[in-house]
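User: Could you walk me through two proteins back to back? I'd like the raw sequence and the structure tokens for each, with a short line separating them so I can tell where one ends and the next begins.

Assistant: Of course. Protein one, sequence then structure:
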Amino acid sequence: MSSPRSGKILIIFAAIFIIAAAAISLFDWNMLKPYVERQVEKKTGRVFMIRGNLDVSLSFTPKISMERLSLANADWGTRQPMLAIDKLSFRINPWKLLGGEIVLREISISRPEVLLEKNRDGKRNWDFKKEEKETELPKMGRLMIDQGKLIFRDPKTETDVTARIATDSASADARETPLNIVAEGKFTSLEFTSQVHGGEVISLMDKNLPYPIRGNARIGTTHAAFDGTITGLQALSAMDLKLQLDGNDLSALYPITGIVVFPSPPYRISGRLLHRKTEWSLKEFSGQVGKSDLGGSILFDTGGERPMLRGDVISRVLDLEDLRGFVGARKGPQPQDSPAEKQEKKASMAAQRDRLLPDQEFRVDRLRAMDADIKFTGVSILNKDLPVEHLVTHTRIDNGLMVLDADFTVAGGSINADVTVNARSDPPAAEAQVDVKRLQLPKLFPKMELTHESLGLIGGRARIKSRGKSVGTLLGSADGRFGLIMSGGWISNMMLEIVGLDGAEILKFLVIGDKNVKVRCAVADFDIKKGLMKSEAFVIDTTDTNILGDGHINLAEETIKMKLSPEPKDFSIVSLRTPVHLSGTFKEPKIYPDKMLAIRVGAAVLLGVFATPLASLIPLIETGPGEDHNCRALIAAVKKPLPPQKKDAQNAR
């Protein structure tokens, strides 16, 4: 039985508890607002305000509620505040708190609005006051977000995106609470929309735990779908995503990713996107660009003085038409273009209407924007005009200096090209060395029936230097030399007789068939100065006929002015031998006989009218004055080493 003294003690404790509870229940928690505001301002260096009520509901897991919170933006920010929340409430575990660990068992955020922005100098408004000791984020349980809003702005990249964030449901565990994000706005001045579904919220706060994420985004005409994990969202320290990418033009990736890619037809690519530290890689990707397939791996490293792109890409079936953008071919209006863009492209195409060489200017700024080391292999080539069978290239870019090594398997032979473009100077300087080896004539012109039975190997060399901002202007200002030879082999007699306009021989071949004539030598040698190719030697020397060429080709104006004069070595009673002229433009070349032919034919017709039939043959009697030319001397002239030339590009290294 309790003593009277024990009863008095219990009464006293009960009274103290009741008085304390009454005092706490009557306590105005708003009195603590200045203290809380000072502590937050001390940690962040920004003004923090609680304009509404601060309340605490006591229990074994006390609930703390605050209304109308705001955190000031940086003084250079576009507006105030940086953070605004209508209502924030959370339950805290007091027993864990006594041990120095913050555990928030329940968090509810109503109508939060966060503004993240950069200024033109790259400063970020989320860079707060530096602390001596890094603050650990609290552990969280249930999370509820109602009508969240996140705004990101970067005037330097013309980006302004608004994202709306909400939780799917009030799960008992934040790790089971999915996030839904819907975003829209402008990204690098392009229209932007995105839908993202996030997974475990607790892993979103953890710097080392992968956070599951899936979604899709559209930026301009580029669309991406992704599914995987991101680690350390704030620093974006690691990423592992399955990525599907499609769009109308690969070059549109540059303003989005900073990766320089040549203009292309529509594409679709999928692969595994990995990110760690400063490296981004697309592993074992595959896809389609135009009619060509692509596969391989690429790595993009942003940790150096300039971004660096490395890669090994292969195409099992490559359509050369898909590479038109690489040499600066203009692209016509696309369905997704704005009216202004369509009008601009129409005008651009109209300016190129009468020209064949691409005159679209290189994006010199992009050549200087990143370095590269890319290997590309085209295993099988599709092309309706050029007999290219295989292609291997190696492209290196170092601070605007591009070096391209290309090996083509063409017409049973090869073309090896070494091209240097120095974009460090303005306009860019270029130098090219091209070697042509053992091209087979029938494979080189497969559509010409006259060459089907022809034989012969073609070789040659080109060495040029130039300056310009497009393929057209580079060739139009070129200096150097270009030569081709055909040594040995056979060539169609019909082809020679047609050039010689030998009527009797053509009639004979059309009736009883063609025959081949041995080629002793064929040489074409041009000196190039300021885009003007002047023939130094042009001879096709066969046992049947010599064809002598003379004239020039203007690369700047894209015009041809050549004269081919056949000199038959046989006697032909019905010969209409006369020079043949090549003229016109690259786009519309013209071939016509010398005006002497019209005089001769006219005279023959006149004599045929006023005299006997035999008299009409008189003007056509020729004796064939052609003589063999020294083939070895001509070939030696083309094969002799060119004088060494100092490379503009090398001087700038």
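----
Protein two, same layout:
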Amino acid sequence: MREGTGRISLWRPELGSVAVSVLTALYLLALTNWSFWSKGWRYLEGRPTTFASIAIGVACLYVALCVAVSLKYVMKPLFMTLILTSAAGAWFMDRFGVIIDIEMIRNAAETNSAEAGHLITPGFVLHMLAYGLLPCLLLLWVKVRHRPFLGKVRGNLAVIAPALVLALVAGLSHARVYASAVRAHHDWFETLNPFVPLVTAVQFAAGQSVDANVVAAPLGADARVADAPLGERKPRLMIVVAGETARADNFSLGGYGRDTNPELAGKDILYFPDTTSCGTATAVSLPCMFSVYTRSEYTHRKGLSTENLLDVLSHAGVDVEWWDNNTGDKEIARRVTARSLIKDGNPAYCAKGECRDQVLLDALDARIGSIDKDTVLVLHQIGSHGPAYYERYPEEYRRFKPDCRSAEFSDCTKEEIVNAYDNTIAYTDHILASVIDRLEKQQDRLDVSMLYMSDHGESLGELGLYLHGAPYMIAPSEQTHVPFVLWLGKDAKAAYSAACLADETKAAQSHDNLFHSVLGMMRVQTNVRDPALDLLSPCRLGAIS
């Protein structure tokens, strides 16, 4: 329509603030909570009356909350934030089956732009346009009518009060069934979008402000190498390979039907098939596995406030270096020599802010000849990190085809996704075998060994889940069952009973063993080393464990 001034004024619908609040609440609940509703229907075992009751109760709570914050100048920005957050959360929860808890947010916060870029797919962009931007534009288009303050209070309370009463009645009507379902399925209400993710994000932000001022307490200051001086023995070189997203289920060393470990199978290694991780995401597992704490004891705050394995080795006079081909050392290498191989950017293996793990071998070639004292090198892989599995291996390692050539899983069949993932495992097999090859060539002058553990596993569609990061309490074994490989050079092997080591491979192991086993293998004595968690301790010959 045209106004008297000659300006063209677009027609805008006009709605009261309560109506806009109710519509926003229903939109959030109906169109961005597929994971919540589908889990609820499944967990309530198809009880339609119970399901309808909880739907009414949750809807009333959403309405009450949205109406309560429908303040002039506040409600539109706030509702737009809720819509955008809910749209993003729905994409990851519905598509990958993830739970957005504190550790998932921590993992996202500590990623790099290259890794994040693999998640910003065309599908995600279209989803955000349809479920985020378009509703926000509609919200901006609507002219919201607000009552005077007292009238608004009365009007809002007239909706909020009965909504809360109805929610209470709905909750009490089937309370026993709800309580049983929630106890049995902790993941159900953790998918309630967007309020649970938002509350979790606030909790994470609050914790970050405290973490920023944490100072690590000394650990193992009494550490020393309990062995003959270097002039009377060979220097020890131990390489610890921190794997990424490798799950034990897909290692042929552990019985997987495909030959994903042909090179390691030809090496004299020890494989521990029953090994569990400390967490299901790098931000948890990596610092935990290098900490003195067991999985049951570990917290993020404890990890920050206590020195770790690398510090104890350093106190003992061992040279320690961290080489990173991933998203960083998660504060583990803060007090030792750390190097980012991604920043070095070898164009033969690196592109778009990421590198294949061949860069680790090249760095080892350049360094190994100059090692002349006790040394531990930590090689942090990119390994099998998804969803862009196809970028983790070169063309010659496309052994399993057809392999998924996209970070958008909806573009691929499950078979193609698994093929691409298995190719990453085969490439890791090559990397580990190549590390062993290099160590074997140094045995005349160095006492060498290699230990490999993955930080966590990966879901490949089992139970509708993809990737990793599920809360540990409900995580499937695919995300917590990890590969563990140990190789001992001729001098290191001579110090242990072969029969005893073979027996140890049959026992259950975990990330809890890494800290103490590495200290034992490097002959580091300290009060913080627990021989009971050093898996090689009972097998050591002619020495006090």
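The chain is about 45% helix and 10% strand.

Let me know if you want the two compared in more detail.
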